[in-house]
C-alpha cells in the first residue's frame, strides 16, 4: 500500500499550502494522509491537522522515521508526480498544478536548447542569483537547469531592497527576475554613477560604450 506524502514549507492554513515536492513512500502501516513540515509545528497546528484526518510530523520526526525504517530508493517513472506547484491565489484560492518528472525534464531540456543558440556557452563556473520565491516556477526551472549543468546557485539573504549587496558578494553571471527588481538594480547603478568624480565617470562611459558596441556587433 502506498501513501502520498507531501513535503510542505509551512502549515498555517490547512487549505492553503505552498507545496514544494511530492514523493511516494511505502508507509503501509499508516492509515492517514501525512504532512511533513520543514519548520517546527505548534501543538495547535498538529491538533488542527489531526482533526481533519491528517497525520503531521516535523522534519526531524520524519528523518528519525527514515533512520529506523531504511528502504531502497524508488527510481521515479516519467509519469510519477514530481511537484505540485501552487498559484499565488491573487484571483482566488491557490490552485495546485500537478507536474510530473517528465514535465520537469522536458522543461530543462527546453532551456538547454534555448541556451545553446548563444555563442557564449554556459559552464560550471556560471553563477545564478536566486531571489524569486522558491515556489516560483521560473526560479525552479532555472535552478534545476543550473544543477543539471553542474553550475552554482546562490540565494539572496531575504531583503530585496539590499539585493545589490548580494550581487556584490556572489558576483552572479546569470539573473532572472521581474521588471520591478531589474528597475531597482538599474536605479542603484545610476545612483552609484552620480557619486563618482568626473574622471571616473568618464572612464565608465568609455567602457560602457565599448561594451555596448561589442554587444551590437555580436547581435
Automatic annotation (TrEMBL):
Limits of the AMP-dependent synthetase/ligase domain: 51-190
Any matching Pfam family: AMP-binding
GO terms of molecular function: long-chain fatty acid-CoA ligase activity
Organism for this UniProt entry: Lactuca virosa
Alphabetical GO biological process terms: cutin biosynthetic process; wax biosynthetic process
GO CC annotations, alphabetized: endoplasmic reticulum; membrane
Source superkingdom: Eukaryota
Protein name: AMP-dependent synthetase/ligase domain-containing protein
